[in-house]
Every structure is written in structure tokens, then in C-alpha cells.
């Protein structure tokens, strides 16, 4: 169930076939796993590149105090922003000249659209920012919390 599930009218049928099992049995086992809390949810995730969003950028600001929190809330309201983090700077790990604490991951269908989004966000949030375009993606997996026993 951690692998891709096909988007078909009966998504558990291919799983059952791969297990040489009955579809109803697979559905029942999935329901059992959910009822005892082993399976929290089954959800869909959109591959933004296949959906046409080929330009991605991590945009960072250096903001402080309440303005940082307010800016983070405004930035995260944009539908094209998939992630928005306000981070605390750790002095012992601080890279000289790297003061950024607000990060917004933005997605666009092209460079021109991304530039427009950056400019609009800069007008709204103020302050100086940097934008780092994605060149290649090496790893992207959902985080699964598994407490140590």
C-alpha cells in the first residue's frame, strides 16, 4: 500500500491480482488495518511536474518578530505555495551572510510565471529575498513517523 495505487475504478483489484488474492479480501484487510490504527490514511499526491508545473523555486526571506509570522501566514495562503516554513536560526550553525528564516516553496508552469509570483510575493511581504530554482530532484518521499519502542 506504500507504492503507487493506480487511478482506476477498482484500485484494489490490481493489488489483489499481484497477491494472487481476492479483491474483497484485500479491501477487508485494508479496512482491518485502518480500524486498528496501523493504516492511518490512503491519500493521493499530485506529481506537479506531470500536471504542468515545471518551474519550482525555494524563496527565502529574512524577517523578524511578528512580521515573520504574519508574512508566513500570507505566503502560505497562495495556492501555488506547497510548503511554507518559518525557521529559527541557530547561531552555532549559522552561515555568515545567510540570514534567511522564512521559506516558501513555489511552483509555476514556467520561468515568466515564477518571476511574476516572486514579484507579487515580494510586494506583499516586503523585505529582501532570494530565489533558488530547482535544478534536479534527488529524493522526495513523505515522512512517516515511526516511534521507537
Structural write-up:
The chain has helices at about 10-20, 25-35, 65-75, 110-125; strands at about 55-60, 80-85, 100-110, 130-135. It has about 150 residues and is an alpha+beta fold. A four-stranded antiparallel beta sheet has the order 2-3-1-4. The longest helix is centred in the C-terminal third of the chain and has 15 residues, at about 110-125. It starts with 11 loop residues before the first helix and ends in a 16-residue tail after the last strand.
Note the topology.
Blueprint: H1 12-18, H2 23-35, E1 55-61, H3 65-76, E2 81-86, E3 102-108, H4 111-125, E4 129-133
Antiparallel strand pairs: 1-3, 1-4, 2-3
Helix pairs in contact: 1-2
Amount of beta strand: 15-25%
Quaternary assembly: single chain
Q: Any idea what the radius of gyration is?
A: 21 Å
Helical fraction:
25-40%
Strand order, main sheet: write it out. 2-3-1-4
Q: Give the overall silhouette.
A: elongated
| Rounded average pLDDT | 86
Q: Could you spell the SSE succession in H and E letters?
A: HHEHEEHE
Low-confidence stretches: none
Number of strands: 4
In whole angstroms, how far apart are the ends? 23 Å
Main sheet specs: 4 strands, antiparallel
Structural class: alpha+beta
Number of helical elements:
4
Amino acid at each position: 500500500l506504500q507504492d503507487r495505487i493506480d487511478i482506476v475504478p477498482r484500485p484494489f483489484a490490481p493489488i489483489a491480482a499481484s497477491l494472487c488474492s481476492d479483491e474483497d479480501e484485500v479491501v477487508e484487510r485494508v479496512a482491518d488495518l485502518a480500524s486498528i490504527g496501523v493504516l492511518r490514511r490512503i491519500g493521493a499526491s499530485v506529481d506537479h511536474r506531470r500536471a504542468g508545473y515545471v518551474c519550482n523555486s525555494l524563496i527565502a526571506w529574512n524577517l523578524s518578530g511578528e512580521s515573520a509570522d504574519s508574512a508566513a501566514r500570507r505566503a502560505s495562503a497562495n495556492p501555488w505555495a506547497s510548503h511554507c516554513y518559518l525557521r529559527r536560526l541557530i547561531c552555532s550553525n549559522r552561515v555568515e551572510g545567510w540570514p534567511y528564516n522564512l521559506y516558501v516553496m513555489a511552483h509555476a508552469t514556467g520561468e515568466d510565471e515564477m518571476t511574476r509570483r516572486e514579484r507579487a510575493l515580494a510586494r506583499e511581504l516586503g523585505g529582501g529575498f532570494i530565489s533558488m530554482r530547482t535544478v534536479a530532484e534527488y529524493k522526495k518521499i513523505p515522512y512517516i513517523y515511526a516511534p521507537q519502542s
